[in-house]
Amino acid sequence: MAFNLLPLVVLLADTAYVRVFISDVNDNKPVFAQRLYEVGIDEDADVGLAVVTVGANDEDEGANAKLRYQITSGNTGGVFDMEPEVGTIFIAQPLDYELQKRYKLLVLASDGKWEDYAAVVVNVVNKNDEAPVFSMNEYYGSVTEELDGSPVFVLQVLDENDHVPVFAPTSYPLAPLPEDVAVGTSITQVTASDSDSDLNGEIIYSISPESDPYGHFTLVVLATDRGSPALTGSTTVQLSLLDVNDNGPELEVTYNPVLWENSPAPQVVWLNQTSTLLHVIDRDSLENGPPFSLSLPRLYAPDFHLQDHGDGTATLTALHRFDRERQREFFLPVVMTDSGRPPMTVTNTLTVTVGDQNDNAHQEGEKEIYVHSRRGKMQTTSLGKVYAPDPDDWDNKTYTLDARGMKYFTLDKSTGHLAIRQNTLAGSYYLRVGVSDGVWPDVVSGVTVHVRELEDQAIHLSASLRLTGITARDFIESQVDKTSRQDMFRGFLSEHLAVRLGAINVFSLTDVGLKTLDVRFSVHSDSYLRPEKLHGFLAVHKKKVRLKVFPS
Q1: With contact defined as beta carbons under 8 Å apart, do 244 and 233 qualify?
Q2: Topology of 166-178+190-242 in CATH?
Q3: Model pTM?
């Protein structure tokens, strides 16, 4: 008989319970049970009598929920005081209906960090504590002795305005209204009565609305008689609005994501510096808001995928490498649908910028510029940017001017913008500018500047042209094909006016507003062409000029 002996393994186990106590943080504000309290109190009520107790609720615990109450305004003469820990308002000074008939107190509840307010309206009730008083102690008159049964004196009693207009009932809770209810719709009718007569009993109504951000309105309706002094009664109308799904979802913030060219794919796109999540919100109530449905149209499926997480967030993924030199931006229409009844679908555009990397070498370039002086005088003038063609547009280049050109010219080393100094002498100047980006080999670009003396007749017989959507710098800077818009304009005039290119003299460029440019030029063949002829030519060929200067 054979036996196979296996080692005996004894498993030991035990159970422990861990009790976790969550410490409360003071992150909830106190909230009054109601926004308006209204009470009546007899004018002969004793000092110390409680008028009303207000209360607020705080969802925190312990010390964070301990509230203190105080009256912040409306307590004329210090007639009332308040128990700070209980919220009871009591009489601190004797009341007098004849001195003040109504108090509107603003009450504060605070937990030391957060606050809430409520209004307390105290109507002083008149008591019969004033004896009638005749205007005279004695009245004198005379009658004939045979008078029988006729009045001797007629005493007229004038009504004292001693009754406040009274509403019945004292409050009006209403059924909720849809928020898109038509203007002019009748909500309810409130009526007050006044026991006084004549003007003392005539009532004028007014309204004082108070609202909160959740669509609840407390309308305080005031009824004021026309006595002197006037007396006012009040009632409250409680009204709630039913949300209508009239807002579609929207992006929580304006996102400006940058997706770097040549980056490995697929890759999640960072929406900002700290997060890859796209957040969506809805201005309607929760019933007409989330959950949302988020997607991209099929047209964009080859390039991007939008993953809806079902909680109002989504993640955008780039599906392949991108080349900024082929496409600089993508405008992605994010289709968003809420859960309202009926649901609302909207589109928000998410702009994704393809970030530039220095993956192309810059080249040497040549540029020719004409500048004019008048009677040997000229201002320091910008000549535009040194031309060094490069498909990359985010490179940080450094520009260096040859020492021989520094006497008459200045160069911004970081932007490459060249300027001619004041009163530079007439003549032609050739400048050599070194261009470096720290990655590709350095190159040297050339700039030829011709300084011409501008004749008086060229000014007097010049024409002008106003262009919109362009600045002076845009007009003179070289494009990808090494020509500037100024070169295109001069070439167009040369071709259609049948004159030499050198006969067209553009001598003034003036920015007159946001992207608005005034161009002044003259044309000299055997003699100067009249401005009337040039303006007529421009009017006839307006569209052609526009297309020539803005070929794209």
Answers
A1: no
A2: Immunoglobulin-like (2.60.40)
A3: 0.56
